[in-house]
Amino acid sequence: MSGSLEAVRPAGPLQGLRTWWTMLKICLEERLVYRGDFALGTLMRFLPIVTQVFLWTAVFGATSRGDIAGYTRNDIVAYYLLTMLTRAFSSMPGLASGIARSVRDGSVKKFLIQPVDYVSFLLAARVAHKLVYYAVAAIPFALVFFLCRSYFPPVPDATTIAAFLLSLALSFLLGFFMEVTLGMLGFWFMEVSSIVFGYMLVQYLLSGHMFPIDLLKGTPTGIAGVSLADVVHWLPFEYTAYFSSAVWLGKVKGAQLVSSLAIEAGWVVVMAVACRVAWWRGTRRYSAFGG
Amino acid sequence: MARYFAIFLTFARACLVRDMTFRANFILECLTSLGWMSMNLAFYLLVFTFTSEIGKGTGWSKEPFFAFVATGLIINSVVQAFFMPSAEELTEMVRTGGLDAVLVQPLDAQFLLSMHRVDFSALANGAVGVGLLAWAMARMDHAPPAVAWLLYPLLLLCGVAILYGLVIMLAAATILMGRNQSLYDFWFYITNFSRYPAEIYSGPWGGPLRMICTFVIPILLVVNVPARVIAQPFTGESWIGVACAVIAAVVALVVSRLVFQRALARYRSASS
User: Fold this and answer.
1) Distance from CA of A4 to the nearest CA of B (A)
2) Tens digits of per-residue pLDDT, B183-204?
3) Furthest-apart CA atoms within chain A: distance in Å
4) What total number of domains does chain A contain?
5) CA-based radius of gyration for chain B
6) How many residue pairs bridge chain A and chain B with CB atoms within 8 Å of each other?
């Protein structure tokens, strides 16, 4: 079989929707098989935040400053909790490596002959994964946020909440398309684990998962008047953790909020197109042999 | 004992030969490991642009703190190199029944399951840790006494022993549960508490957490005690920490051994 085979497209939008719904149901059932393991893993993910909270409390205790880069100690704690929520939308564990593996072991070929679009299937699987995750994680998330409610500023206005929700939805799509594009590199490199690792490294550092990006505002880049935070602002990474959290905390407002949302949406489009191009070009050069 | 040491050397040699067969992959693994470490060091450097020490009056200013970080790197690299690769394979061995083949070997099962695979690339972080320690010690305003330098390697071994005990306990849990991917995540998350000086855990929540992580799961003794011995002034109180670390190491080894034996006794083969 050669890569010249094209995926058969579902006939009509209704048929496509039904196929998508079936894929979602299958993936939901698959995800719920190991739900105990899944629930335990969800709880564990809060542990690293605890050390960050104590670390920053110690840092604020040792300095006379009331805030660091515009963040009070309470803001920092709220920030880390909010990044947990944002990462719950944007992180896609195992997605890129799974795609690369399916290319390497040949299992991707079934998507070339079945009337199922591979990217849509992956999206359905990921939505299912997230739905199960939110269902399992809702209680621990609610509990932790309730216990830590004193760290949060008052609930923002409706516009900010709407912008926050929109940024979360976009962060999900951005995280998904970035990881799928990375996985598609498997058509060219076969083994992408080192590329994925490099991506994770940059992602962890520049997404704001490790610290608020505002802390980089004083870090020079060598270009006059341009800090490292300014550079990061134009990259896609900060929209997968920092941005939504900063929106809720009121650190990004007005025109800056609108332009940042536009940049995030722009990156979603760029990565969606990149992922499609990678799939089309990858399947053209792909070849698999045997059953 | 000599027989087991010879067998371990054979395992290590085989792993080294395999690593050197795929040299590019080995170098890449070293680089990725160093990448994560560099990122953490960059974060600590960023933190020290906003404060002069971690916790008011704790003595964990920049150089002592980096000596602390270096100590953690050395201990963790040893555990990651010699014990974790084998333990990580255990989940699949239990699920697929591969553990049966280990149990029929004329060797101690715990030895085979925890030490048959060595990841030499993990030692790269340890090498950087030694360099970072030298850098930090050369810049500190007080030189540790000779006794501190004598105790330091012993306390590093105690730290390794405590973590090894934890790995074996998790391996035992794998055997009992059949699948426990989350418990290995748990290892990562729980060892996360050992990454910072114990003084940061204070207040109504931090105090009890510090007690639990010192006396129940003695994870705070792993890095804190050896780091404190060389990076903080050595006083009479330092001996209390040393005694706690030694006792915790012995208890971790003995209890983990007992738990592992019990878990093996309850193991049911998954193969046909």
Assistant:
1) 33
2) 667 778 888 888 899 999 988 8
3) 69
4) 1
5) 20
6) 91
